[in-house]
């Protein structure tokens, strides 16, 4: 029997597939189905900085005037309408999820700046969260804000959360940082135990008839995996904290590629929305079959075997790849033309 165990954030996990933050885990029945299908951990849906700040403001107003209600105040943030899970509801859901399954349950906080809301990480820990995933979606929209300032803001935020809790903290990074090995080393220095690459970038679409800009959410395709593999392969061996890949993991091949690039775990969201929660079991069976056929004793022994530090020729990860890819393409085109 192949040993499927993996490690992530200092936790020993039963397998390589973690369910990433998605509304699917808002139902306890689904949480149980995820464990039954073979998920080795679950990241719950996020609570947002804006929502937490708003709730605490609403509470202050309630206490001072006794009039406004939470629900009313939350309504002032129309874009967050879908995320009305209040703090108490979230913590209660977390406790129930913990009681329902034996795999680790990770809570998710989503924010960009340091503030009082960060204290909520402690409440998540007290409610039983085995780890905190901090989603740090922030965009530079001002010409006066430098990338260095954005990184410092991120580091301050991560330091505030790691100081607030004892459980491990993972940082879900956006893809737009330039020097990821350096940034990740600094995240490690402020106490992060892992990075999740990457947060998906939800770009608004333009309606050219109505001249409106609309938010869009499409499920991922496996093509999104390549940038994650590339960065995981570069980071592995370069940093001392764990890596998780999120984005484009749909099949057994994707899971194997993620682990071979150096990730401790691969995460799934879109694939479960598209194929159902039981898809996890099918993918794990395929991973097992693949490993058995090649007589591996464990999944872990494949970890990092295609990372930048393991392969004899690193040029596919570097500038050499760019030159080779472009020049081989133009050569082919020229030959075909004759
Ligand atoms: C419907 C939906 C809701 C999501 N909600 C959250 C969220 O609350 N917090 C978060 O960090 N990521 C959230 N994500 C992002 C996923 O956790 C994941 O990082 C992303 O979808 C890429 O993985 P995938 O290719 O497996 O979908 C959501 C994704 C989907 C599809």
Which terms summarize this structure?
globular, 338 residues, 12 helices, alpha/beta, two-stranded antiparallel ribbon, eight-stranded parallel beta barrel, TIM Barrel, binds flavin mononucleotide
Describe the fold and architecture.
By secondary structure, the chain is of the alpha/beta class. It has helices at about 30-35, 50-65, 70-75, 85-100, 120-125, 145-165, 180-190, 225-235, 250-260, 270-275, 280-295, 320-335, and strands spanning about 5-10, 10-15, 15-20, 40-50, 105-110, 130-135, 170-175, 195, 205, 210-215, 240-245, 265-270. It has a single domain (about 5-305), classed as Aldolase class I (TIM Barrel, Alpha-Beta Barrel), CATH 3.20.20.70. The protein is built from 12 helices and 12 strands. The strands form 3 sheets. It has an 8-stranded parallel β-barrel with strand order 3-4-5-6-7-8-11-12, surrounded by 8 helices. Strand 1 and strand 2 form a beta hairpin. The structure holds flavin mononucleotide. Flavin mononucleotide (FMN) binds near residues 110, 268, 271 and 273.
Task: Lay out the secondary structure.
Elements: E1 6-8, E2 11-13, E3 17-19, H1 28-37, E4 41-48, H2 49-65, H3 70-74, H4 87-100, E5 105-110, H5 120-126, E6 131-135, H6 147-164, E7 169-173, H7 180-189, E8 194-197, E9 205-207, E10 212-214, H8 225-235, E11 242-246, H9 252-261, E12 265-268, H10 270-275, H11 279-293, H12 319-337
Parallel strand pairs: 3-4, 3-12, 4-5, 5-6, 6-7, 7-8, 8-11, 11-12
Antiparallel strand pairs: 1-2, 9-10
This protein binds flavin mononucleotide.
Residues 20-23, 45-46, 108, 110, 135, 172, 200, 219-220, 224, 246-249, 268-271, 273 line the site of flavin mononucleotide (FMN).
